[in-house]
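Is nicotinamide-adenine-dinucleotide placement plausible here? Inputs below.
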Amino acid sequence: MKILIADAFDDILPGRLEKFGELTTDFNDLATADIVLVRSKTKLRKDSIDAAKNLKLIIRGGVGLDNIDVEYARSRGIQVFNTASASAIAVAELAFALMISVPTRLIEGHEGMKAKQWLKKQLKRTELMGKTLGLIGAGNIGTELARRAKAFGMEVIAYDAMLSEHEVVELVDFDTLLSRSDYISLHVPLLDSTQGMINAESISKMKDGVVIVNTARGGCVVEEDMAAALESGKLRAYAVDVFLSDPPAEDCPLYGAPNVIMTPHIGASSKENMLRIGDVVVDIITKFVQV
Ligand code: NAD
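Reply from A.M.:
I modeled the complex. Tokens:
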């Protein structure tokens, strides 16, 4: 059996997979591979799937499956799995870090010090305590973020299209979430129903000075509308790990907008998470070869 490791996984994973067969990292081996492992870089669309004549199993190390044409692969009898809940803590910690960096003025304080500027009087701070965090999507990652935010004394509400009850947060409708939240954090997959859901119209229903955190997908917001809202001050800050493309295009409007905090899609990239993803990959392949 041939296993193609198309993207970067934890260093120890290849050693754990050797017992299952021949390993390769050369994408040209797609035509003869039985199993392909991808993260988010490699896209498996119809043409690649058609070229993979022996393919029986695709594993995406991560949550979304938007880089794989899942329905087409399954129609060809290929099994498709992700490592759904493994990344929740890693992404929730980054979302929390992005969120708390705004009221603590962490980035401006650091940049000022590096430029030998003592901004003690200029950097007025606020606190998370007592503020309302609105989650869009209250699945694995949203729930982990809710637990952390509550530990900091935040009130947490959520809008989730599929849930009617939740053990940690109060569920509200979309417009209530927009109007009540001081901080809004996105945790939905990229679907037709979530594409561009944060746009000029939804932003107009938010509180003045709202902070938006996005560790979900860049396509869930309209970047031009985010930049305009940052320029006007309606939006206090946009703290974001995900963009329309990885990396963002040269003309991405966020580069020139004020009060944007950006990280290079590192939500799932913790050492611990990569080990957890490796554990799930080994489990899936073990079950696959036993059948
Ligand atoms: P999840 O499936 O556990 O939760 C997603 C939630 O969104 C579900 O509860 C679902 O009911 C809800 N939802 C679906 N459509 C909706 C809609 N139209 N409106 C409102 N809610 C809707 O997924 P998760 O593990 O929490 O991950 C969420 C997303 O985070 C992933 O889909 C992925 O896009 C993103 N992600 C990013 C990184 C990163 O590196 N930044 C890493 C992992 C995941």
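Short version: Residues 62-64, 87-88, 91, 136-142, 159-163, 187-191, 193-194, 215-217, 241-242, 265, 267-268 surround nicotinamide-adenine-dinucleotide (CB under 6 Å).
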